[in-house]
């Protein structure tokens, strides 16, 4: 069974940093692209970042490019999202998601339960 | 890039069919056939129901079908059921490697 485990919520101040994690099981971590999608309160889904199966190619939305970094740690089968210079508008439920393929296309066939990130003073 | 354009809401009665459109541009939907659709029930995680315009993942009912014409993709749900009531999102891969979602369409089953 495919599982993507994400920790619970966290509160951080504007300008602060945070590293989200997503530990996977039930599939070959090195064979699939992965991504991050967020949902702000009352809003729709917004793609944040993606990474191919090898971890060598990364992709970012304009809203987070330069502030967020996605990475894969293969020994621990964990996907990370390093978030810096956080803004109030980054407040959202952050989902990690598995792509269907080795290549990155954003067709997410499995999702984690999400980590609530609140950016506030 | 702006979000793909979806109607805010659609509705239909049980047994009927509905279609949700997802309008983009030549720089996203029109560029590739990598369009996906997701069903999102409140409080649950999104579920992939179509990928590459019209392919269904294992376990997805054939009541869900997809198509694309130019820069617009469409999701059709036939034989509406109460459990189909949810928010539906499209997304598209772009040549830059970025992915763009639609704003979401709330489906109400009357």
Structure characterization notes:
The complex is a heterodimer of chains A (121) and B (110). Chain A is mostly beta strands and 121 residues long. Helices cover 0% and strands 49% of the residues of chain A. In chain A, the strands form 2 sheets. In chain A, strands 2, 4, 5, 6, 9, 10 and 11 form a 7-stranded mixed sheet that branches. A 4-stranded antiparallel sheet of chain A has the order 1-3-8-7, with no helix packed on it. In chain A, a hairpin with an 8-residue loop joins strand 9 and strand 10. The model of chain A has no long low-confidence stretch (mean pLDDT 96). Chain B is mostly beta strands. The radius of gyration of chain B is 13 Å and the shape is globular. The model of chain B has no long low-confidence stretch (mean pLDDT 96). At the A-B interface, strand 5 and strand 10 of A face strand 3, strand 7 and strand 8 of B.
Characterize the main sheet of chain A.
7 strands, mixed
User: Strand content of the residues of chain B, in percent?
Assistant: 35-45%
**What is the C-alpha radius of gyration of chain B, as a whole number of Å?**
13 Å
How many strand units of chain B? 9
Structural class of chain A comes to mainly beta
Structural class of chain B: mainly beta
**Count of individual helical segments of chain A:** 0
Show the largest interface.
A-B, 24 and 27 residues
